[in-house]
Amino acid sequence: MIYPSIDDLLEKVDSKYTLVIAAAKRGRQLRNGSKRTVDEEYTKDVATALREIEAGNIEYERKRDGIK
Question: Which domain covers residue 32, as residue numbers?
């Protein structure tokens, strides 16, 4: 079982696609030396990013509402 759960994470963002993009971008920032916002140390940057999103420490702004 993974933690945080997908259901908990989806309460923080508007869709699962937004969750994937936010976690990937934050994971890249962490890999490039950005400071972590959670106290726990994880070996993988994406796991840390998901914990930060679940904690509400990461905000995002939607630039476009989709292509029609």
Answer: 6-55
